[in-house]
């Protein structure tokens, strides 16, 4: 039986400012750093010792993973970074204030962009200050200009299949420090959720989700290590 911990990054500066972040590389706030350290303490208390940490190439996820490992007293853990674990790309909403966007486009429309499974926001303009076309992390990659949760899953799943799943099937314990939507994509895969069921799944910041998996990588148990900040979890068949 393998264990998997999913850890959403701590509060970022743009979380604090209530802005659509997506692929913009903002850092953690002091509160986010404290959340990451607390996540590590909870991981240590749970006796979890991963052999590998997978994370995105965005600072807020990488630092959350690093700080959690340090706080847990875990050394010499292999760290693998890949853009396919990035947050969902918010397209033309990137950088906008969420409340102002709702006032402009209507709360119902913004709710569709944010929470629907397969409706992406408008694409990011090619000349936007937030364009990632020349970012060296993505040179030669087929990067999107907007994403829904569905298309986020479309890029996460091949990476899961090729890189993460074999480690778990080999009996290793794995930790993933990533983002709300890339982690929701993994939850959809693991728990076999429908397109409708995943809409209501929310991952709290820096609260480790501890999942025990059988030999076929089916969840046999799942719990948030901080029960006081837990969100509802899918039922396990």
TrEMBL record:
Under which pathway is this protein filed?
Answer: Carbohydrate degradation; glycolysis; pyruvate from D-glyceraldehyde 3-phosphate: step 3/5
**Keywords noted in UniProt:** Gluconeogenesis, Glycolysis, Isomerase
Which CDD domains does the record match to this protein? HP_PGM_like
- One family name in Pfam for this protein: His_Phos_1
| Residue positions binding substrate | 8-15, 21-22, 60, 87-90, 98, 114-115, 180-181
Q: What class of enzyme is it?
A: isomerase
Family matches, as SUPFAM superfamilies = Phosphoglycerate mutase-like (SSF53254)
* Residues marked Transition state stabilizer (site): 179
Catalysed reaction per UniProt?
(2R)-2-phosphoglycerate = (2R)-3-phosphoglycerate
Can you tell me which residues form the catalytic site? Answer: 9 (tele-phosphohistidine intermediate), 87 (proton donor/acceptor)
Source species, domain of life: Bacteria
Gene3D superfamilies in UniProt: Phosphoglycerate mutase-like
**Its EC number(s):** 5.4.2.11
Family membership? Belongs to the phosphoglycerate mutase family. BPG-dependent PGAM subfamily.
Q: How does it assemble?
A: Homodimer.
**What's the stated role of this polypeptide?**
Catalyzes the interconversion of 2-phosphoglycerate and 3-phosphoglycerate.
Name this polypeptide is given: 2,3-bisphosphoglycerate-dependent phosphoglycerate mutase
Source organism (scientific name): Brevundimonas terrae
Q: What is the lineage of its organism?
A: Bacteria, Pseudomonadati, Pseudomonadota, Alphaproteobacteria, Caulobacterales
The encoding gene is gpmA
């Amino acid at each position: 039986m393998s264990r998997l911990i999913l850890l959403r990054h701590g509060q970022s500066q743009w979380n604090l400012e209530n802005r659509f972040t997506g692929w913009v590389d903002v850092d953690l706030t002091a509160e986010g750093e404290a959340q990451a350290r607390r996540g590590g303490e909870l991981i240590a208390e749970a006796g979890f010792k991963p052999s590998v940490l997978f994370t995105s190439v965005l600072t807020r996820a990488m630092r959350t993973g690093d700080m959690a490992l340090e706080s847990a007293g875990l050394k010499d853990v292999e760290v693998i970074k890949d853009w396919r674990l990035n947050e969902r790309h918010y397209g033309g909403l990137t950088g906008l204030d969420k409340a102002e966007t709702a006032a402009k486009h209507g709360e119902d429309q913004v709710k569709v962009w944010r929470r629907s499974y397969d409706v992406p926001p408008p694409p990011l303009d090619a000349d936007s200050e937030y364009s990632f076309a020349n970012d060296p992390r993505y040179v030669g990659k087929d990067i999107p200009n907007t994403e829904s949760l569905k298309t986020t899953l479309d890029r996460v799943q091949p990476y899961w299949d090729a890189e993460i799943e074999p480690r778990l099937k080999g009996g290793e314990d794995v930790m993933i420090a990533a983002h709300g939507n890339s982690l929701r994509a993994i939850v959809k895969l693991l728990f076999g959720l429908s397109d409708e069921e995943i809409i209501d799944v929310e991952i709290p910041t820096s609260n480790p989700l501890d999942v025990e998996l059988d030999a076929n990588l089916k969840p046999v148990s799942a719990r948030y290590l901080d029960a006081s900040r837990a969100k509802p979890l899918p039922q396990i068949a």
